[in-house]
Amino acid sequence: MVRKAFILGLSLCCSCLYAQEKKDIITSLKADKPGQGKVRIFQDPKIEALLKSVTAEVVSTGDKNIIKATGYRIQVFAGNNTREARNRAISIGEQVAKLFPELAVYTPFVSPRWICRVGDFRSIEEADAMLRKLRATNKFKEVSIVREQIVIPLD
């Protein structure tokens, strides 16, 4: 009787531990397995948020719901901490907004300089395609891709 109770208890513990392992399909596909190829998945960040991935976070800001995730932006200008650099960053941001109204423009002061960054790109390929379009205008000389936390609207 004690032996049966021990085996029953052991099997219950093992099944509980197995049930606690939470793996979604995306994680299991991305895992490196010997003798198999690598899988790279490019998906809409909304799907990742729905799967409750660690890299994306759904945030409510008033009447809007947004996803904060790690992604890429294009840095169009980086100056110093003068008023002239601030005005230049804002001016370049306005130029980008006129040429590409679909891009979000960010002009923060990141100590010790003013920066103008544009876009919210989930993959580096998307950012690179837009970088090439910005360079093709011949108006923006110092463009580069930077990794940053991006904002993606759900609405």
TrEMBL record:
Pfam families: SPOR. The keyword Signal applies. Keywords: Signal. InterPro entries: SPOR-like_dom (IPR007730). Residues 66-148 form the SPOR domain. GO terms for molecular function: peptidoglycan binding. Residues 1-19 form the signal peptide. This is Sporulation domain-containing protein. The lineage of its organism: Bacteria, Pseudomonadati, Bacteroidota, Bacteroidia, Bacteroidales.
